């Protein structure tokens, strides 16, 4: 337990004038905020209460901007953020802009089918996306081209993943002074052991699984052989997918593309990109309009962007039966967080169960895992759906590892992409021993107990565990691993010993996980929806989406009330989050792939 002291040290006569000054300042700030909010409200009121449907004009080009951070579930058009972002000196959205994978895929399908869309202009190449999601976008674009329509791509700089997407274009353009980061991939991990030693902190490790490497940064200074093996395997698998895709689109060989990567293309002259067949045209951005006119076949054409195209009216199937698409994205926590919050997810699942029109559920999972307890609770809620006769199908995105696999394993059918990172069936716990730090700063601890282990957790932190105490904790972790593997065995209809043999905390790519029986088939969200319809024996249905996306107004008010934390405050919040995590975690190691 961490106790934060009361930091208000003002008292007596000294506090009175400060309190009066603080009150005046508070009233002034309240007045300023009121005026600003009133101005913003007046500016956007018309658009907020007008029809949310955007009119799609003839002769339109869909400008698909590959920038920002890709998330599974997109947000509705937000006029608040747009106006705030345009205010002088405001960079509110500069680093936090997100775009929904669901919106992009839906827009590409609409663009294919609607004659008012002439083609797609892929713009920019800095979208932060995982390989599995990038593949879904790429495949959707290839399907779009089957309609006979065109795609043109332009960027000032392409990352490898964004170039993999853009390579399907009929014409790939690059800024005359741009770069193409076709350099191969590296997977890096930060190790904290020596820093913790300097602070006088020892991380006491409890884990099951030879490959469960999420805790290695706290007691090693480099990769274990097991971690190196699994990381190298999935890094090469992801790179192989990039190479194969680009080779097909650009009519190059894998050997050529690997040779280019060995030359570190980011530092090569721009002309070499054209000479080597990676790019078709070097052109300034302002010159792209002329190129688009040629492809459009006209001087004047219209443009529409992702958020606006997402608001264009779709034809909704006339059916009462529903397939619920349930998004599970982010780290799994118990009661609060930005990802999959256990209690909130269970409420959502129960809400789905009460909807008599829902005949099947597709859960879209993109998670590295997290709390083992929350994962078990979510697993149980999904089993409740199945007991009610509602089929559950899982569609794995970039990640469905550790706790992410835990919540997936009980589904009736599991789809993954070839480069989905999954598995990591293992459990760990970490307990910091701050005994040396306590001695350095001169803190002593003493107390009384009624029983032998009454102060077990306190002593583990402030004095360190003895062998008997370590055994008690380790046994609890092993029970958690046994439960995890039993859930996997039950869901995958495999002996538990077989699950343990391929578990051990090892991470697998989706294509390898299929061969091991951890997933059923390679496929995207659409295939998962088709499978759910087949299992529920539905000929006609409509889709409903959970959880409901927050209203932009509510989010703005929340952000204003919470304020923008400083970097120091963000660090403190991160440290507190680490301290408050449950003891037992089913979490994949954090690896930066670039």
Textual characterization of the structure:
The structure is a single chain. The chain is globular and about 85 Å long. It is α/β, with parallel strands linked by helices and 594 residues long. It has a domain at 60-183 and 264-310: 2-enoyl-CoA Hydratase, Chain A, domain 1 (Alpha-Beta Complex), CATH 3.90.226. Residues 1-20, 43-51 and 83-95 have low confidence and may be disordered. Strands 11, 14, 16, 17, 18, 20, 21 and 22 form an 8-stranded mixed sheet that branches. A 6-stranded parallel sheet has the order 9-6-5-4-1-10, with helices on both faces. The protein has a 4-stranded antiparallel sheet with strand order 8-19-23-15, sandwiched between helices. The relative contact order is 0.13. The protein has 22 helices and 24 strands. Helix 4 runs parallel beside helix 5 and helix 17 (467-492) packs across helix 18.
């Amino acid at each position: 337990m961490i106790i934060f002291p009361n930091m208000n040290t003002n008292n007596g006569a000294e506090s009175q004038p400060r309190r009066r000054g603080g009150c005046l300042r508070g009233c002034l700030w309240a007045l300023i905020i009121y005026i600003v909010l009133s101005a913003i409200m007046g500016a956007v009121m018309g658009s907020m209460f007008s029809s949310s449907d955007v009119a799609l004009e003839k002769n339109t080009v869909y400008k698909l901007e590959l920038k920002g951070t890709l998330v599974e579930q997109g947000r509705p058009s937000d006029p608040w953020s747009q106006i705030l972002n345009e205010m002088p000196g405001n960079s509110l959205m500069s680093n936090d802009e997100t775009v929904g994978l669901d919106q992009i895929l839906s827009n590409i399908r609409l663009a294919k089918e609607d004659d008012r869309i002439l083609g797609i202009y892929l713009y920019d190449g800095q979208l932060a996306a995982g390989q599995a999601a990038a593949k879904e976008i790429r495949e959707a674009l290839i399907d779009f081209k089957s309609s006979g329509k065109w795609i043109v791509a332009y960027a000032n700089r392409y990352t490898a993943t964004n170039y993999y997407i853009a390579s399907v274009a009929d014409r790939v353009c690059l800024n005359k002074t741009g770069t193409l980061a076709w350099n191969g991939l590296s997977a890096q991990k930060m190790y904290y052991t020596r820093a913790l030693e300097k602070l006088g902190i020892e991380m006491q490790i409890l884990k099951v699984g030879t490959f469960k490497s999420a805790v290695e940064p706290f007691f090693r200074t480099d990769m274990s052989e097991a971690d190196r093996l699994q990381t190298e395997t999935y890094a090469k698998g992801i790179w192989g997918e990039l190479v194969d895709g680009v080779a097909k689109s650009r009519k190059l060989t894998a050997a050529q593309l690997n040779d280019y990567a060995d030359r570190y293309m980011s530092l090569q002259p721009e002309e070499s990109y054209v000479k080597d067949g990676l790019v078709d045209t070097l052109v300034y951005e302002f010159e792209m309009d002329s190129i688009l006119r040629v492809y459009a076949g006209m001087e004047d054409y219209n443009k529409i962007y992702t958020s606006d195209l997402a608001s264009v009216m779709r034809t909704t199937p006339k059916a009462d039966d529903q397939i619920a698409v349930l998004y599970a994205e982010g780290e799994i926590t118990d009661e609060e967080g930005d990802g999959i919050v256990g209690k909130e997810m269970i409420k959502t699942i129960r809400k789905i169960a009460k909807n008599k029109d829902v005949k099947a559920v597709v859960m879209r999972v993109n998670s590295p895992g997290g709390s083992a307890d929350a994962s078990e609770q979510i697993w149980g809620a999904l089993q409740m759906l199945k007991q009610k006769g509602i089929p559950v199908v899982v569609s794995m995105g970039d990640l469905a590892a550790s706790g992410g696999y835990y919540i997936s394993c009980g589904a009736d059918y599991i789809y993954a992409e070839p480069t989905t990172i999954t598995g990591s069936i293992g459990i760990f716990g970490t307990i910091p021993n701050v005994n040396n730090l306590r001695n350095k700063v001169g803190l002593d601890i003493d107390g009384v107990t009624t029983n032998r282990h009454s102060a077990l957790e306190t002593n583990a932190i402030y004095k360190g565990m003895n062998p008997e105490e370590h055994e008690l904790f380790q046994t609890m972790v092993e029970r958690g691993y046994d439960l995890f593997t039993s859930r996997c065995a039950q869901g995958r209809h495999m002996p538990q010993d077989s699950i343990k043999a391929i578990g051990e905390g090892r991470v697998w790519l989706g294509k390898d996980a299929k061969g091991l029986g951890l997933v059923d088939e390679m496929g995207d969200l659409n295939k998962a929806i088709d499978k759910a319809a087949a299992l529920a024996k539905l000929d006609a249905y409509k889709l409903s989406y959970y959880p409901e996306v927050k209203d932009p107004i509510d989010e703005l008010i929340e952000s204003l009330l919470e304020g923008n934390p400083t970097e120091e405050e963000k660090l403190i919040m991160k440290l507190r989050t680490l301290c408050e995590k449950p003891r037992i975690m089913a979490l994949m190691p954090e690896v930066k792939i670039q």
